[in-house]
Amino acid sequence: MKITKVKLFVHDVQKMQQFYCEQLGFALVKGAEDYFTIAVGESEMTFEKISSRIQKQYHFALNIPSNLFQQAKLWAKERVSLLFSEGQDEVYFQFLKAYSCYFYDPEGNIVEFISRQEVNEKYHTTIFSIEHVLHIAEINLTTDDIPAVAKKLNEYGIKPINSNDIQQDTLNFLGNYEDGANILVGPSDRLWYFSDKKARISPICIEINETFQLIMNEKGHLTVAQG
User: Model confidence over 2-35: pLDDT tens digits?
Assistant: First the structure.
């Protein structure tokens, strides 16, 4: 499974474009007054304006080369404030064999750099730049009906990592370990790791393998569209 495109919704397009394109340096693919799209390695991410009355909150992770985690963390610290948990600004996930660090964007979305040691590419350099981001590694689907959403994803071949059972009160990782990409399905009101932000049901559109789209509205209803 590859997460090829993601559409997130924002309240201030101009501020978000300044952050992602100028402060972080992602390449602008296209844009207008009410949206912009950036290249995220082999993936694309679109930020589209939505009414300020609609609340939303996102977490997404970006894969970086397996040998450049510390370089990426230093690069990030020069541009953003890293988030801390128990005095640490990084974490190692044993089940993913991955190092991660986190920071906020201007609308409080939680951005993660993740360096999966077994599946991410290794680059022959000791210097990290934004061009070394590989692709979108994780994106969340927050829902209060986890079994129904997990069942819908299963119909399209998106199954729990390592054949784990679906849990209703925590975060579930769906997608193949070897592909280095996961859909995160979890309940609302749970605290995100390294954050005081609570997960919130949010509108989102996720394209998988350039083949179909997972579309969740602001009420948490998930549909799938082909093409």
Answer: 999 999 999 999 999 999 999 999 999 999 999 9
Nearest to 67 by CA among 103, 119, 110: 119
CA distance 131 to 40: 8
Cα–Cα distance measured from residue 225 to residue 222, given in angstroms and rounded to the nearest whole number:
10
Confidence of residue 188 (pLDDT cuts 50, 70, 90): very high
Q: Is residue 18 part of a domain?
A: no
Q: For residue 38, is it within any domain?
A: no
Return d(Cα 151, Cα 148) in angstroms, integer: 5
- Residue 46 Cα distances to 5, 27, 43, 141, 224, angstroms: 8, 12, 10, 16, 18
What is the spatial distance between Cα 133 and Cα 40, in angstroms, rounded to a whole number?
6
